[in-house]
Amino acid sequence: MSENDATPARPGTDSGLAEFPHLAQLFAPGAAPAVDDQVVARRKGMWGSGSGPGDTSGFNGMERTTALAGITAPPFGGWFDQLADRMAELVPGFATHVMVHRGEITFFVLPERLVELCRALRDDEELRFEVCPAVSGVHYPEQAGRELHVVYHLLSYTYNRRIRLEVELPDADPHAPSVVPVYPHANYHERETWDMFGIVFDGHPGLTRILMPDDWVGHPQRKDYPLGGIPVEFKGAVVAPPSERRSYNQ
Which residues are in the NADH:ubiquinone oxidoreductase 30kDa subunit domain (predicted)? Predict the structure, then answer.
């Protein structure tokens, strides 16, 4: 993540692309978002809105824009190009864009190509990403039409490599296909992501809450979830829920 203005895309060059003929098939036509669509948050002040007496820090005039690291154009460098070339050969047009940041690569994948891509990543001799150690959700309310993201961390024991896949979904219809048929141990991670963010994994064998009670209303890790809670008792003392504690807005 970058806390500066939206990071410009790293320009690609034609040099070295001849060695990877399938990189041109990596992206779905017209699917890439604009560079300035990478902004995920705009904040003012230290604690609150930046206006009025609510911010007592002295930083109430501060403005900060938080953005993703940007869109990276091929070639990506190192083994990333060999990997991306093979992925594009097996599943052409699966990506909307790619982000290379701090030595790590993230492929932003169309939901409808996700399971096919995961199966290729697991089974192909040149890829061999045998494990999906984690599936997690992210909520970016500023990204209209793709507010909810699902992030899949993949690990290759064979080649000692790690990559990420990321699927962007609209808040109004947050459906992604389940990868449990490919990575069975993703079962509980998808349940937790549904529980915390409300992302529906179509085809999951038992998509029920895993952390919150079955009758819980809402999804607590979304940024629009109200700050509340229940009192906690400690041997006679009671700690109030966050929404009832000291307020800086008075």
Answer: 109-229
